[in-house]
Amino acid sequence: MIRTVFKGSGSALPRRVVTNAELAKTVDTSDDWIRERTGITQRYLAADDETTATLATQAARAALENAGLTIADIDLIVLATATPDSTFPATATKVQHALGGSGFPAFDVAAVCSGFLYALGTADSMIRTGMATNALVIGAETFSRILDWEDRATCVLFGDGAGAFVVGAQDVAEDGGPGILATQLHADGEFADLLYVDGGPSTTGTVGHVRMKGREVFRHAVTNLAQVLRDVLAKAGYAPGDIDWVVPHQANLRILDATARKLGLSMDKVVVTVDQHANTSAASVPLAFDTAWRDGRIAKGDLVMLEAMGGGFTWGASLLRV
Ligand code: COA
Description:
The chain has about 325 residues and is of the alpha/beta class. It starts with a strand and ends with a strand. Coenzyme A binds next to helix 2, helix 6, helix 7 and strand 12.
């Protein structure tokens, strides 16, 4: 059977690191408060010459190199972002051009922090139905551009960055073998007012700022993530104990901890980068994956659960045999 297999990953971060202490000079907050409530110690923030497209291109180049492929081998780019360079064209087309590609489909998906799961699910479907052979799947964000830097309840939580996977079609045995084994995606627009941006091209004609009811988002996140993880495991015929690594959306260390506890998983199996990167929205899952892939924690043959939850609400999970 044709399955979508992982071929390589890459990531990119802006040059500038901003610690909690540095942030506390301009925002009414403290290193202690941010660490205790979120686990975040620092984040990377984009300079004027660093955009979602430049970070995405850098991550994509690294992923191609890691996969041992070039842009000539790619026939699809799906890029997840809530902070595109422009309302249109899609940031994916900018990345395609910057990499020297042309002709093949390249488009953005918008599912905020779950965006990478949605992008990967889309690429997986297109690969398994023969519409693409090798895809670049990218999550890239410059959330710093849509933060209200006077709202301490949100601006301390986010950072900028990008991560990318190269995935491709491979004929594998039905049972066993590498590839994406199961994916589940969800959305529920009823909860749009708990996490949203108060602007947009068709409403205010502005970009807007992130608004969030943090406590309520927290509660929904733990419940929805634990359920979708269980569902994806059941769909693929595995149990929580079979997972080698969970690569969660890096929103808050307490959400990661509470979700792992609900599933009876040890935190030793959870990749944590939120302390270094903060919440990079759609970039966070591939950024965290790439960190653990390059430092050797995630190895070929490992069973890895990718999961995320974000504004919408949207949420999802994907089980991957690397
Ligand atoms: N520094 C210092 N104090 C802050 C602060 C900051 N950066 N942000 C908020 N506070 C204050 C609040 O004003 C409030 O003060 P009050 O009690 O005097 O009114 C107090 O801290 C508690 O605020 P609350 O929002 O209830 O805190 P919390 O324990 O729920 O933690 C979050 C806040 C945002 C860290 C937490 O709700 C959270 O992580 N939610 C999930 C958010 C998330 O990950 N979203 C993205 C999902 S994709």
